[in-house]
Amino acid sequence: MSRLPEDFDELDDNIEGDANQFDLQDLERTILAACDYVVPSDNLRPRTLDKARELTNAKANTFKIGFAAIFGLSAWGCFVLLVSLSSSVHERFVSPFGNEMQHIAAELSTTNREGIDWALVDAFIRYRKVRGIQ
Predict the structure, then answer these.
(1) Would residue 43 count as lying in a domain?
(2) Does the pLDDT at position 1 exceed 50?
(3) Does the model's pTM come out above 0.70?
C-alpha cells in the first residue's frame, strides 16, 4: 500500500481548494503511505538529548550569572551604606585631642578673661554645638 511521492500533488490540489471539501481520509492515507520512506536518523535521539542538555546548561548559566550580578550589586549597596553610616557615626563620636581643647580653652580664657577651667567647659560646649551634639 505504498504511495509514491507524486501523490502529494493531489494533496496540494485538495488543499488549494475549498477547506470544506478537503478529504481527511485522503490525508490519513498519505501520512500512512509516508511511513514507508520517512524514518528518523540513527543519531536523532543523541542529538536531541545533547540539544536539551545545551539548553538546560545555558539556562542554568544565565541564572547563575544573573544571581551573581544581583548579589554583587546588593553587596556593593550594603557596603556603600555601611561606609556612609560608619563615617557619619565616626564623625559624631570622634572627640578632639586634649591638646587641641587646651589650646582653644587658653584662647577663650584670654579673650573672655575667665579661668582656664571654665574656658575648657566653654570650649567643649562650643565644640558640641558645632557638631550638633545635644
Answers:
(1) no
(2) no
(3) no
Residue 108's pLDDT band (boundaries 50, 70, 90)?
Answer: confident
- Residue 106: inside a domain, yes or no? yes
C-alpha cell at 95: 572627640
Are 92 and 131 in contact by the 8 Å Cβ rule? The answer is yes
CB atoms within 10 A of CB 11: 16
Chain segment 42-100, per-residue pLDDT in tens = 899 999 999 999 999 999 999 999 999 999 999 999 998 888 877 766 666 666 677 78
Burial of 123 (0-12, 13-18, 19+ CB in 10 A): buried
Q: Say how many domains are in the chain.
A: 1
Instruction: Quote the domain boundaries for residue 118.
Output: 95-134
Looking at the domain assignment, is residue 68 inside a domain? no
